[in-house]
Design brief:
The complex is a heterodimer of chains A (about 280) and B (about 200).
Chain A lengths: L1 H14 L1 H4 L21 E3 L7 E2 H22 L7 H22 L1 H23 L15 H32 L6 H51 L5 H41 L4
Antiparallel strand pairs in A: 1-2
Helix pairs in contact in A: 3-5, 4-5, 4-8, 5-8, 6-7, 6-8, 7-8
Chain B lengths: L3 H11 L13 H133 L6 H18 L2 H13 L1
The chains are: A mainly alpha (about 280), B mainly alpha (about 200).
């Protein structure tokens, strides 16, 4: 095991792009998925703030693909849409109508559609890399992307709330919900403060990252087991490979569902949080 | 190679295996690059993608709404035109009926008029003819009286042998003769004879 593993790592760091794509498949033995998958070795600038690794490349590829699709779509957008434009518009309208307008109402929606759409589509793109061959890892599986998005949501709902109610008004609205006897505030107020400062963004970020991590581990487990059973195990065990492959297939489909679902949940909760700041009282 | 546990151990020992909590404690480079990437996406979406799509979607909505309104107004217009057409048709029919009625009345008036005129003409012609006939008859009666008088006188002078030159006598003889004639002849002749006698 040490031999092939070493070999794999050195190839990865020297040949960069083409080979790192095979990373999660492994080249021999049973490659058990581990936390190390989410901390691949650096390719460039190791140890600095600008360290570039496999996940960086996955994210860049996803970003380029996302922006290409949407910029080309926007360039070609016509009054009478073609098939490609229809598909994009369906997605954009899903965000615009089903998420933002549904929660905020039409007049507030217009202001926040760009933000929520950016969140939805970037989360979706980074999630989907988990099932794209050769990428095979969600760009949102490492906490950076989810965390930055969650902080964006945090800053936005604070800014919107302060803009709408003033700093004191916003805190009063959130920390001292009306209609409860004052001793309860001793309990409620710290919880609410924790809620608007930490729990909301943290739950957004961790939910997304954890889902993607779990999905990746399940996928790798299934496919690594398939690889192991089919090519390396004793003949009597080979039939298990069929089973694990079927499992991997199902989980791949499930991952696609989860990718959409998590993007939807992230966008939906972001909208809800921002909307809470817009409302008079909640 | 084949056993699972030793392999995992080796991996753990070989690299600085991240602990589970590291998954949620971001590394500096992770945050930096995530920010950069998301900033790029956000800028492109805010600047280029969404305004364009919003504009196209809004334009389409406006166009569809405008088209619907236009179709509605066109339909209303068509309905109004149809109603107007129907009304005009009705008016035209009424007018045609009126004209027909008038024409019929006028026609019968003309016919009656012509008929009256024709019967007038006929009456006048008959009258004229009557007059002419009467005139000719009188003329004939006058000339006949003269001729008959002369002839009868001559005849009588020849028979009687005496000249009836005396005009007074002559006239008396003729008158008597004619009176006799009239007494014997038809009523018309007698009337004519009478009148002729009076004229003389």
């Amino acid at each position: 095991m040490p031999g092939p593993h070493d070999h794999w790592e050195s190839t990865l760091s020297t040949l960069a792009t083409p080979v790192l794509l095979a990373a999660s498949e492994g080249e021999g033995g049973f490659h058990a998925p581990s936390i190390a998958d989410f901390f691949p070795p650096a390719i460039l600038f190791e140890g600095t703030l600008f360290q570039i690794d496999r996940i960086w490349i996955i994210r860049v590829v996803a970003t380029v693909a996302l922006l290409t699709i949407f910029v080309v779509g926007a360039r070609r957008a016509r009054l009478v849409p073609g098939r490609f434009q229809n598909a994009l518009e369906m997605l954009i309208d899903f965000v615009r109508v089903q998420i933002v307008e549904e929660i905020m109402g039409k007049e507030n929606a217009r202001r926040f559609v760009p933000m929520i759409a950016t969140i939805f589509f970037s989360v979706l793109a980074f999630n989907l890399t988990s099932v794209v061959p050769f990428l095979n890892l969600a760009g949102s599986a490492r906490i950076g992307i989810p965390l930055i998005l969650a902080l964006w949501v945090l800053v936005t709902y604070w800014a919107v709330g302060i803009q709408k109610h003033g700093f004191g008004g916003y805190l009063k609205n959130n920390l001292f919900p009306p209609g409860i006897p004052w001793p309860i505030y001793l309990i409620v107020t710290p919880i609410e403060l924790l809620q608007i400062l930490v729990i909301r963004p943290a739950s957004l970020a961790i939910r997304l990252a954890a889902n993607m991590i779990a999905g990746h581990i399940m996928l790798v487990l299934c496919f690594a087991a398939t690889q192991y059973f089919v090519f390396e195990a004793v003949p009597a065990m080979k039939a298990f490979g069929v089973l694990t492959f079927a499992g991997g297939f199902a989980i791949t489909l499930f991952e696609i569902l989860v990718a959409f679902l998590q993007a939807y949940i992230f966008a939906l909760l972001a909208t809800v949080y921002v909307n809470m700041s817009l409302e008079e009282e909640h | 190679m084949s056993a699972l546990a030793p392999a995992a151990l080796v991996v753990a020992a070989e690299t600085e295996e991240p602990a589970g909590i590291d998954l949620f404690l971001p590394a500096g480079y992770d945050i930096l690059w995530s920010s950069v990437i998301l900033a790029v996406i956000a800028v492109v979406f805010y600047r280029a993608v969404l305004p364009r799509f919003q504009a196209v979607l809004d334009e389409r909505t406006a166009k569809i709404e405008g088209g619907l309104a236009k179709a509605e107004s066109a339909q209303a217009e068509a309905a109004a035109a149809l109603a107007e057409y129907h009304q005009q048709l009705q008016e035209a029919r009424t007018e045609a009926a009126k004209i027909r009625e008038e024409a019929r009345a006028e026609g019968s008036a003309i016919v009656a008029d012509l008929r009256a005129k024709a019967s007038d003409d006929a009456a006048r012609i008959v009258e004229t003819a009557h007059r002419q006939i009467e005139a000719e008859r009188q003329q004939a009666a006058v000339s006949l009286r003269n001729d008959v008088g002369v002839l009868a006188t001559e005849l009588a002078s020849k028979i009687v042998g005496e000249s009836l030159s005396d005009s007074a006598r002559q006239s008396r003889v003729v008158d008597r003769f004619l009176d006799e004639l009239e007494a014997a002849g038809p009523a018309a002749a007698s009337a004519a004879g009478g009148r002729a006698a009076e004229e003389r």
